[in-house]
Amino acid sequence: MNITFLGHASLLIETNGKRIIVDPFITANPLAAEKISLQNLKVDYFLITHAHQDHVLDVSAIHELNPDAIIISNFEIVTYFANYGINGHGMNHGGSWFFDFGKITMVNAWHSSSFADGTYGGNPAGYVLESEEKSIYIAGDTGLTMDMKIIPLFTKLDLAILPIGDNFTMGIDSAVVASDYVDCQNVMGYHFDTFELIKIDHEKAKKTFKKAGKDFILPEIGEKITL
Ligand code: NI
Ligand code: MN
In 40-181, which residue ranges form alpha helices assigned H by DSSP? Predict the structure, then answer.
């Protein structure tokens, strides 16, 4: 499984020969816009955690370039994009489905979810992705929540992708606890540095995870991680 960090909370996951883009927010991210070209993104699926602009902005533009791509998200978000001619697979919390790249389970995130135009975006989510290769948890935007303790019931994780930017989501100290709750040794941080309010001290973040005995990845934009 390859995971490329596209900036903010955007990821490109390659597994089982399929390409899944998570929460695309690239063209309006000043840190990513120069480094990541939408034209170069080949995508089979969108996996969307919630409706906030910093998670859905580039769905339509990427879909225009990849018209067969299918959006996986909650029912409300899938319905919203269906109005723009994007095919989707709606889910809700606690449900799992087997796709051709692997199994997705939609899990709770403690946050909010509305579109920029005010449309209700359903409840925010995280996802557990289990392919034949690896199992990962994509937390989405969330605070630390006791619900994370049920994640190990689904699978043994190879990687937990957790927000660490604070203010809108949990910060680094809570993310360390979250990695214990989901019972995962390997953590990748995301949702940091994009905006003034979520700028983090990189060295402090690394030290905090090291002290907790965790293997921590603080990815560069464009960096590809192979599990
Ligand atoms: Ni959000
Ligand atoms: Mn966000």
Answer: 53-56, 59-65, 75-82, 151-154, 172-181
